[in-house]
Write a structure and sequence with these properties.
The chain is an alpha/beta fold. The protein has 17 helices and 16 strands. The strands form four sheets. The protein has a six-stranded parallel sheet with strand order 7-1-8-9-12-15, with helices on both faces. A five-stranded mixed sheet has the order 11-10-13-14-16, with helices on one face. α2 packs across α4 and α10 packs across α11. The radius of gyration is 26 Å and the shape is globular. It starts with a helix and ends in a 12-residue tail after the last strand.
Amino acid sequence: SLSLSLLWSISLRQLKNEATSWLPVNYRIIARGRGNMAQLKNMCALILGMALLLLASSVEAQLPPVVFVPGFTASDLLVKRTNVHSKYPFCKNNSGWSLLWPVENFDIKDNSTTLCWLEALQTEYDPSSGTFSGQPGFEVTTLDFGTFIGTTGGLTIIKNWEQLGWVVGKNIFAAPFDWRVPSSAMDPYFARLKALIEHAHAQTGQRVVLLAISFGPQVALSFLHRMTQQWKDEHIAWFVAESPVWSGAPLAVMSLISGVPLTGNVTQTGLYRALSLNIASLPWLFARAGKNSSTAWTADEVIVSTPARNYTTSDYPALFRDLGLANLVPGLEAILGEPDLGHFLPPMVDTLVTYGIDVNTSGYYQYDAPFIPDASLPPPFPAHITNMTETGDSVVPLRSSLRSAAEWTDVMAAAGKRLYHRAYPGQVHAYCIVPQGGPCFMDVVNLIRNGTIPPLTPAPAPHPHTPVPQIDAMRQLFSFF
């Protein structure tokens, strides 16, 4: 496909040189004879330029609009303090907007900076009202809703789509969100997302492709649960869920316990444990209980073990108490009981689910020391972790992504809605969104652009639990999305 950027790369001089080549020879001879060749070239260049622009506009107009929902921690957050009654006198107040996430120059040893950041970041659950919210006096918002500026890797993502003809603000948009809270606290965001989709639909005259990645599919699914069937039929062409975490991932549990050792850097590990302890949405990513071990974790499957005891998906409240986090148990139970991922109703729109397979992925963790009920201890604790792996995409086990195949297929078929699942061997988490991740990217593009259904992919190879060094299987988390 041609794009405006490609067309504008043709210089006016090149147009002038080629502009008259299509004219009959006798017309060019007459023009030269009368000394009007320059004027003829200018006129033809203008005509060809206008034709090329019309062609580019036609190509753009034919491309279906796309609204992108990013993953966990992949939306930049801004914060403003207004008359905050902080328990820390050194924290700035009434100082305008500042960047809350991503964190720059984080130093867990800098106590004052860390405490001010955590105070602004923190979200809590109120059992009396059953609601999740931030701290009083803190206003948090996303950066540049509708564009890709405020999303992690956004410039890389949009560069690839622009090369294929999409244009930000015309037929492709990003919908960043406050990822600190679960779906029950996202009604303001869902209203903005609905308005953005309606804008894209009205501007292009075409139904919208809702493209979501990693944590994003859970958010997009929750949004679709709140829309009427008439609205969905009118506005949504496809729901594309890339690397979804439908049944959660054990890696999220480890993040709460001891942080995520991305590169062995203690500061980075401490950052993600501090993040995990202070946002309400993390349990929405925990490995989920179920009766079928091919799509969830059964009651007898161990997620975490220590010399003192084992923890399954039924033992999260006990795990929290053993970590000194008893105050967070009511919020944990509220999230585990919410209906969007609890009941897991289908989206009731045409849907494609893509995911990576045959990559070592965290299955459960063996810690070599009992937990100490003191959440203030700096990570990593304990010092040694053995990570037992299964097949997946390096972050999300395969069984989590397959939940939709098991629970949606019959209902979607009965309603006349299409549902496809495609696996990509060797593709790591969230890399379907860029061509460097392999064939998945162009499969999704061709589905959106031409309606071409991606070809069937091979079944995953058998993959028993295998102990591997803890860091090797975790470098992908937060590395790009």
